[in-house]
Design a protein that fits this description.
It is built from 6 helices and 46 strands.
């Protein structure tokens, strides 16, 4: 039985507890965070077991775990043609290998950093489960980097594999025997290797069969034979008190596996099998055909519902892999559907030889001609009404009569270097140019004086024109293009164009003189790059010199390629001929150019290893964000000290 005295005591205690809780706000400390990565405490079969024939593998951990992006990060070597099942459940990972196990072979299941604890996400780094179907475990490994041969970008996620069969045909007929996969820096490791000789390849495997079959698959190879070895070595491990202070530096013995500096240059072969991909007619005035590969042969057109004799102005890309046919005849333009036979060069799939092939095409304009005609008539009717209304009111009417005009786009800076020229792009082919209606003017004092110029159609663009002039430093220019200076194939004319620009004085510019050394045989082309890794100017080297004049001050980068076949451009490789991509190099540092300064730059293109040449500032493929333990306990302790 509760007495009144007892009740009073309980009331007092409750009040005291309430007061204490109000004086000490905040929830109780839940203890330190878990910062320990998961640990394997059991496996079936046992790790590093030999004579194993078990294809179902179970890994048991000391805590609940999860796998992050296992499909990309987990690599099983030798590769599995029948994809294995890998799943996590609670504290276990289950792996079921569906391929037959190879005899006397070491298998590695490399998880990278895919395993992490379920609560805090602490990564278990560089864990690999290893077993052998033979009497011993093979422990050798090789490593290196894969770079894009065209720009030295690290290649992420590409397979790198080995063949003990040293025949060149092995890459195109037999699956890779041991594999690794590159990370965000292009780095790869291939583990579980037996002593011997190997050839190494990289493959962006579209068919998941570990064989190079398609020209669209990026590949890399090297003529060198790979011989894995190892030796004892020592490295220094640094322990940090914090981000600034070092606790200790210790020498740590380890086994160095070699070669560990393999560099593979990845490339995609130029497509040589030629097929018609598609044809399209975006408007009534033209249609375009697209092919998978170049050809010296220009396709032949036979009209089925129109006369194809002299019916087109042909705009062809380099190599005739994209061809636009501009229809000359207005009666043919008015046809909503063009029926034609096209005879072109196509690769025979069974023989691999190019043969002449004929297709029948029906090309329907996306925008019917009648719709375009009606819109023009409505615009003209509206214009006439506005003009009549203005006349009745006695007002001046100056609006231009609606009609189809040639549209011109020009590319010219308001400040142009003396080595530059003016470029104009038309929206339809030009039939005639009246140069008397084009005027290049130079400002002399307060007057404009007409100067000579030359206008030429661009060799690689039917619709492009270049205006050449004598551009003098510290001078102002004006380009006047009168209306009707250009007449197109449909009788259309251009509108009047006026463009002002200037060539800055000489003391505005900088110059760069590059001296090259230690590169392969062939013609060197040096490219000045901006901060987006795009060429600003390309110079063909004279001997070992490449000179850049009239450069605007700023920061630049340099790239050089060796033109081994003399066609004036960088070319990719071809595996069937064991031809590597043409050599390409980057100057490893930024180049700062200042006005009125001549910069002389000696460049030994091989003095810096290829994988370290491309400056970080213009490297787009960055390293993967490394998952680390967050050290939340240290931060928690620091916060406690601050509160005290």
């Amino acid at each position: 039985m509760t007495t009144r005295k007892t009740v009073n005591i309980l009331i007092v205690l409750t009040a005291l507890l309430y007061a204490f809780s109000c004086a000490n706000p905040g929830k109780p400390d839940g203890g330190p965070y878990d910062e320990t990565p998961p640990q394997v405490i059991g496996t079936s079969p046992a790790e590093y077991s030999v004579n194993n024939q078990q294809k179902r593998i179970t890994l048991l951990f000391d805590e609940y775990i999860r796998m992050n992006n296992a499909a990309e990060k987990v690599v099983i070597s030798p590769p599995q043609l029948d994809q294995p099942e890998i799943r996590s459940s609670g504290r276990k990972i289950h792996i079921e290998l569906r391929d037959s196990l190879r005899p006397n072979t070491t298998y590695t299941i490399d998880f990278g950093d895919a395993i992490e604890d379920n609560n805090e996400g602490n990564p278990m780094e560089n864990y690999a489960f290893v077993f052998s179907t033979g009497e011993s475990i093979d422990t050798l490994e090789v490593s290196g980097k894969v770079l894009d041969a065209s720009n030295l970008e690290p290649v992420k996620g590409i397979l790198v594999g080995l063949h003990s069969n040293l025949e060149d045909s092995a890459f195109t007929t037999t699956p890779l025997e041991h594999i690794g996969r590159t990370d965000g820096t292009g780095h790869f490791v291939i583990k579980g290797l037996a002593p011997g000789k190997y050839r190494i390849y990289a493959l962006n495997d579209a068919e998941n069969d570990y064989i190079f079959r398609q020209k669209s698959e990026a590949i890399a190879f090297t003529k060198e034979i790979i011989v894995p070895t190892c030796e004892p070595a020592v490295r220094q491990d640094t322990t940090w008190i914090d981000s600034v202070h070092i606790d200790s530096i210790k020498d740590v013995a380890y086994t160095r596996f070699m070669p560990d500096n393999i560099v593979l240059r990845s490339f995609t072969e130029k497509q040589t099998e030629r097929h018609l991909i598609k044809s399209e007619r975006k408007d009534p005035y033209s249609f375009t055909t697209y092919y998978t590969a170049p050809s010296r042969h220009t396709p032949e057109i036979k009209g089925l519902n129109f006369n194809a004799d002299n019916a087109f102005v042909i705009q062809s890309s380099s190599g005739n892999d994209t061809i636009t046919y501009w229809v000359r005849d207005t009666a043919t333009v008015a046809k909503d559907t063009l029926e034609l036979e096209i005879t072109y060069e196509e690769t025979n799939d069974s023989t691999g030889v190019n043969e002449m092939h004929t297709d029948t095409l029906e090309l329907i304009s996306r925008t019917p001609y009648e719709r375009i005609k009606k819109a023009r008539e409505e615009a003209m009717e509206k214009w006439n009404k506005q003009r009549e209304r203005a006349a009745k009111r006695g007002k001046r009417f100056s609006e231009r009569q609606p009609r189809q005009w040639i549209r011109m786009r020009y590319s010219a800076n308001s400040k142009m270097a003396p080595t530059d020229n003016l470029h104009i792009i038309m929206n339809e082919p030009i039939e005639n140019i009246d140069t008397a209606r084009i005027h290049l003017m130079l400002a002399i004092d307060s007057l404009w004086e007409e100067k000579p110029f030359l206008i030429e159609r661009d060799s690689n663009n039917l619709l492009g024109y270049t205006i050449f002039g004598e551009w003098r430093p510290d001078q102002k220019y004006r380009l006047l293009v009168d209306s009707a200076a250009f007449t197109g194939i449909y009788g259309n004319n251009n509108l009047k164009l006026e463009m002002n620009f200037a060539v800055p004085p000489l003391d505005t510019y900088a110059s760069l003189f590059v001296t090259l050394s230690n590169y392969d045989n062939g013609q060197a082309y040096v490219q000045l790059l901006n901060g987006s890794d795009k060429p600003v100017r390309t110079v063909k080297a004279e001997g070992d010199h490449a000179d850049f004049f009239y450069l605007m001050p700023g920061n630049y980068y340099l790239r050089m390629f060796v033109d081994q076949n003399g066609n004036g451009e960088w070319d990719t490789g071809l595996y069937s001929e064991k031809r590597q991509p043409e050599p390409l190099y980057y100057y490893p540092d930024v180049i700062e150019l200042r006005a009125q300064w001549d910069t002389e730059l000696p460049w030994n293109v091989r003095s810096t290893p290829l994988e370290k040449q491309k400056p970080d500032r213009i490297t787009r493929q960055k390293a993967d964000r490394k998952k680390t333990i967050q050290n939340r306990n240290a931060q928690r302790e620091l916060n406690k000290r601050k509160r005290r």
